[in-house]
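Aim 2, interim progress. The first record below pairs a target sequence with its structure tokens.
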Amino acid sequence: MIAPELARWVVGPLSLPAEVEHAALRHLLDGLGNAVAGMRAGAAVPAVIVATGLGGPEEATVLGSRTRLPAPAAGLANGTLVHALDFDDTHAGGLVHATAVVLPAAFAVGEQVGATGREILDAAVVGYEVACRVAAAAPNGFHAGGLHATMVAGVFSSAAVAARLMGLDAATTTNALGIAGSQAGGLLAFLATGASTKQLHPGFASQAGILAARLAAVGATGPETVFDGPHGVYDALAPASVAGGRVDTGVILRDLGSSDPQGWETTRIGIKPWPTCQLAHVTMAAAQLALVEAGVAATELAGLHAQVHPDSASVVCAGDRDLTRPVSPYAAKFSLPWSVAAILLDGRVGVDTYEAANLDRPEISALAARITWDVTDGAGVVAADAAGDVVLTLADGGTVSAHLERSPGGGTNPLSDEALFTKLQGNVGTTAGELAAAVHWLADVPDLTEILALAAAAATPSAQEATA
């Protein structure tokens, strides 16, 4: 069975290749920046208010503040903060936002138990591997059934992180994973309405995973067949993929703990350059490339036609809503034509692009209405790794095409350290350098005190930034 073997690895000795450790530190830094940006923007206010109101012992800090809450409540708030702007990383194989369910548990439980930076980093890598592997075992399987893979896989990841930091043994950790499976879910119903439930999913997963580990620690039990079945997570939440033979649970344990850095899923997580659904990124980037080649203004385009992977089309090109006039800023992040139009007209996409005032910009809606697409067969590649192909039609009837092998930020096209720092500066302002340095030395520090203090300071823009 998978869960007992996975649990033994989760709590066992860990030797991280340098490349894996570097990747994990990049993702933790990116996640912190996104959480601070979410706090600055007030994008997770309901989750923070409710988490704060739950009461209880002061065990862990809400990122971007000095508020301390019970660790599960901090997980709820921080998971929502990391994901609130949809600017957080994506593992293509599992289509899962890994840091949004790893960082909250690692920091909350790490702070609660007084873990060292080294222990927190090791636990985070364990979390990255669990989240990515559980999701990648059913590529698009959870999404196809209407569920958010980040929450489904995230409960296991958070439980694993918490179990390691709490010092649980393998048998108790197996129970924690089994308990976590009964809390997996996360409906994609927000897609048609612009509701904020997707932002909450990593918070739910982080809170649930921490609670699962705590329950196991005091004697609650969970099924060790949670991954294998019968009635396990894949049988229940990805039944069509199970029936179609598209679930490969061998992915969960394959090459686990390998001495080869390429055997670690942590190195395959992509970092977003833009705060919008990653499934639109490759088309956005290809459209930018084609516009440069055309040498015209976006307002002069007669149209744009794209090739879109079927699993991407179901999320960012769905016909059950108006993609040219999104009903909310969050809905705009899941409209391929709106995001493509915005990046072509403005030459950039940032957090401010998705402010409510921009939803009424007629030039974006007008260009979005001239964007069309064909759905490809999608064979042999997951949606987040698919190529981007676009054809621009110019006012004189001429055409310009562009092709990209994959979206920027991941896989063979990773975001550079320099680009990551530029993103961090945009998210946290003048404290970016200090925060980057503090995270870089995470493995050598006794606790999270400095990092948490810097995040709190960054969440309040300086007078210079506020007037910029």
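The second target in this work package is listed in the same format:
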Amino acid sequence: MHALPHDHTGARIRRLRLERHLTQRDLSNLSQVPYSTLTKTEQGILPASPHLIARVAQALRVEVATVTGQPYAAELRADELDILIAPIREALDVYDLGPDPDIAPRPAQLLDADVEALCVAVRAGEIKRVAGEVPALLVEVTTAAHLDRTTEGWLRLAVVCRTAYDVAWKLGYHDLATIALARMEWAAERGSNAIIGGMYRYMRALTYLRSGQYRTGARLITAGLGILDQAEPGRERDVVTGQLYLGAAVMAGRAQDRGTAEAHLAEADRIAQSTGEAARVHWLSFGPTNVRVHRVSVLAELDEYAAASDAGRELVIPRDWPASRRSHHHAEMARAQMWTGQLDASFASLLQARKAAPQQARYHQTVRETYAGLEAARRQLPDSFLSYGSWLSA
């Protein structure tokens, strides 16, 4: 008995391949994915890794979301999240129309408090709450920025656009996430803030990481570091700089460039020793813990799953670390443990991912791929395992 629907990523790859009249050997050659890996992935025996998905998407000339099946429409409808997307899209679309005559923005202190509250909520995994509240705040902050035309107003708008990006990305609406990023850049330019400009390029680079365009992603990281050089020296600049190096490390890892990945991790670690734990600085969660978490991710991207599992097992995450980051780390650990045959430990990590941030885990592509891999590997499926799959696809 299967808990997840049979239209898994491997099945979608097979369907897309056949639509293009390609054999498995053809697609293997085009994507440079080993033939045996591709065939086992199509059969559902092996889960689809992010690297494989990006390679196949490029070979088939489709979006990564087409391969992964995101956004997960049925689940979004069941959670009544799909109806919250259109208002976010509409709110992002009025950025250049000037102040809305029907809106009287509240004082800056109240706006700042709401902006901060949503930053906290999205990192606590409260995606539905944020998705429901961000459109109205976005419209109000947009009007306030046009009326005041101050640096503070434009940067406040940039932060809210980033929150809209967080929601769209976590729910699988990657086209909307790209629009939110563009609006963030538009506001940051008017605020003339090099820190936000560097952050924007870091977040944009991550979209290229997902699509397998590592060279472009690396160029964006380099551009972001150049912009940060224009910022005032200090902890804030160091934190964002360190985060860019972490993004670059994962980029290099997925490109199978171990030397470059290790060099970026080392530089991030050097910076983290100076900044200490700085989870709340621009909500990037930067610090020694995040460096160690990214080391686990880099090892997994290099297909060194045993080393990734060992590194993660030795890692102690602070209690006050954002739930969204903890959930993502547990998902990465589950993937590494599954690939090393630690099936029970992998499922335990999936449970931890759900416990930390259930709304995020339900729509997390790594969680779903790992569960599918465990389902294929286990001969007997206990009720708790089937219940988890039902929760993912309910």
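The chain has a mean pLDDT of 93. This observation will shape the mutagenesis plan for the next reporting period.
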